[in-house]
Amino acid sequence: MSSKICRKCIKRKDANDFGKHRAVCKTCTNKIKKVQNRRYNRTKEGILTRIYGDQKKNSIRRGHPLPTYTKEELGKWIFTQKKFNALFDRWVRCGYKSDAKPSIDRKNDNKPYTLENIRLTTWRDNNLKAYSDHRKGKLKYDQKIAIKFSLTGKYISTYTSYRKAEEDNNIPRKSLSLGVKRGNGVYYGFMWRLICK
């Protein structure tokens, strides 16, 4: 079996540990790519790439149409916003913490991504708004509705989220869904019907 010496780590390794026609082993290549990706993701262009990719994935997950703009059109929009440079500079000063990272929020979360329906914000503010909207049942997608019945099947109440049902019924947090599955629809002395929209 043949072996080679990696130019990066200077270790002798099996030839299978190298890509075709490569002088650097796969382990070192992966480390280099990780550093390069991290550097790129911390650039303005990197943020644009990440935001646009996430928007496409989230649109599909929500059953919405894809963004009505291209990555280039979104970039033009972002980079002409006065607020963007301030948000970006603050994110850099904060040591690239996720909470301060520039983000794009939809003004109306029940509509798809369009240039008329987006605004610049931070990742933290965007996340807090989504959390709040989920709790209040404002969103028409990703809704997890819990309907409570007595053990005899008499309707008692409808909750706009699993969390609201857990809070109002003193059920341990994040346990309703699993508890209902294990109990064949019965949990904490009631029958439950859980609906994901």
Written description of the protein model:
The chain has 197 residues and is of the alpha+beta class. It folds into three domains: 3-40, no CATH class; 42-136, no CATH class; 144-196, no CATH class. The chain is built from seven helices and eight strands. The protein has helices at residues 26-41, 44-62, 71-79, 82-93, 123-136, 162-168, 176-182, and strands at 3-5, 12-14, 102-106, 118-122, 144-149, 155-159, 186-187, 190-196. The strands form three sheets. It has a four-stranded antiparallel beta sheet with strand order 6-5-8-7. A hairpin with a 5-residue loop joins strand 5 and strand 6 (155-159). Helix 2 (44-62) packs across helix 3. It is extended. The relative contact order is 0.08. The mean pLDDT is 88.
Reconstruct the topology from this structure.
Layout: E1 3-5, E2 12-14, H1 26-41, H2 44-62, H3 71-79, H4 82-93, E3 102-106, E4 118-122, H5 123-136, E5 144-149, E6 155-159, H6 162-168, H7 176-182, E7 186-187, E8 190-196
Uncertain stretches? none
> Sheet with the most strands?
4 strands, antiparallel
Strand order of the largest sheet: 6-5-8-7
Mean pLDDT: 88
Helix % is 40-55%
What overall form do the CA principal axes indicate?
extended
Q: Give the amount of beta strand, in percent.
A: 15-25%
Question: Rounded to an integer, what's the Rg over CA atoms?
Answer: 24 Å
The tally of structural domains comes to 3
Helical segment count: 7
| SSE class | alpha+beta
